[in-house]
Design a protein that fits this description.
By secondary structure, this protein is mainly alpha-helical. 74% of the residues lie in helices and 1% in strands.
């Protein structure tokens, strides 16, 4: 199914993640070395499963946020490398677990670990990576950083359970949806950004600024991801267009289309999502209703709103290349729809 809904065109698309990549390049090389080292095990299947996902081409945005947030406040030590690696392991573990829960077959254009090694191996290797993440946090020796990241791990798990509780329920509200993505996605963005100023031993205002930046960047990021599922291209998504629809996943484009629809249209959504009737014909109809009510562009506008909050969080900090790169990440995340 190659249906693509064009979103409003941005004539001045210039934002790039490249400034952040360039600034963190040396540190990210060290993070990548540590990732490969800590993913190793005498149990052969563990590095096989871990490296399958680790090497699949993700941008590693979350660990770059940790490195940049520490450097923004002048940190010159070693501990940000271990914390950034911990953040990436937490993220990788959640992806392994997510693919099992969602029964996903593709991740970044490749077969998911669960389709190759099975659900049990995916869950257990995810647990191994979480364990390695916490070992590195302990090595850093910062109780504050450990508290932030361990709290995020709990919140992410709560978000997974909350998503299960609202799955295939068309009475899910926008507030319910925001609670899910705040926990599942934004919490790790916030923690990744907050541990940077913690390890740099900066003041409370700097720490709060990066936490707010990460939280709102994460919300914007996920909102755009959910719009892309209905308005993107499979080659860019690393999955099939409409996978959320097929999985009965309740995201904002559907929530808005359902609430704005006629009685007959709402009956269609209940049959398709709650009844599991996610045929190609129903996906075509769903895309038509999403277009009719403009819910993709409204989803993107929500993302722009949270992006503005993230930008305002950083605004009081002194200007620097690091701050500029973090600002550009906001625009980059939102402009992925074009």
């Amino acid at each position: 199914m190659g249906v693509v809904i064009p979103l409003e065109e941005n004539k001045n698309k210039l934002a790039s993640i490249k400034p952040l990549v360039d600034l963190t390049k040396a540190d990210m090389e060290r993070v990548n070395q540590l990732i490969l080292s800590k993913a190793g095990s005498d149990v052969q299947m563990i590095p096989e499963v871990a490296n399958h996902l680790i090497s699949s081409g993700g941008k590693r945005l979350r660990p770059m946020l940790t490195l940049a947030a520490a450097s923004l406040f002048g940190y010159r030590g070693e501990n940000h490398i271990k914390l950034a690696t911990s953040v990436e392991f937490m993220h990788t573990a959640t992806l392994l677990h997510d693919d099992v829960v969602d029964e996903s077959d593709l991740r970044r254009g490749k077969s998911t670990a669960r389709t190759i090694w099975g659900n049990q191996a995916s869950v257990l290797v995810g647990d191994f990576l979480l364990g390695q993440a916490f070992r590195m946090m302990v090595e850093v020796g910062s109780l504050e950083a450990l508290d932030v990241l361990s709290s995020a791990a709990c919140v992410i798990a709560e978000g997974e359970v909350l998503q299960l509780s609202v799955a295939k329920n068309m009475e899910t509200t926008e507030d319910d949806y925001l609670s899910v993505i705040r926990a599942k996605t934004a919490a790790l963005f916030a923690a990744a950004a907050e541990v940077g100023p913690i390890v740099a031993e900066t003041n409370k205002s700097g720490r709060n600024a990066l936490k707010s930046y990460g939280m709102n960047l994460g919300l914007a990021f996920q909102l755009v991801d959910d719009a892309l599922d209905y308005g993107g291209k499979a080659a860019d998504l690393g999955k099939n267009v409409g996978d959320d629809f097929r999985e009965g996943k309740i995201t904002l484009p559907i929530i808005l289309a359902y609430r704005r629809g006629t009685q007959d249209e709402r009956a269609f959504w209940r049959d398709a999502i709650e009844g599991g009737n996610s045929s190609d014909a129903n996906l075509e109809k769903a895309l038509g209703l999403i277009t009719k009510y403009g819910t993709l562009n409204d989803t993107i506008q929500r993302a722009v709103h949270y992006g503005t909050i993230a930008r305002d969080a950083l605004a009081p900090l002194p200007d620097s290349l690091w701050k500029s790169a973090l600002m550009e990440v906001i625009d980059f995340c939102i402009e992925r729809v074009n």
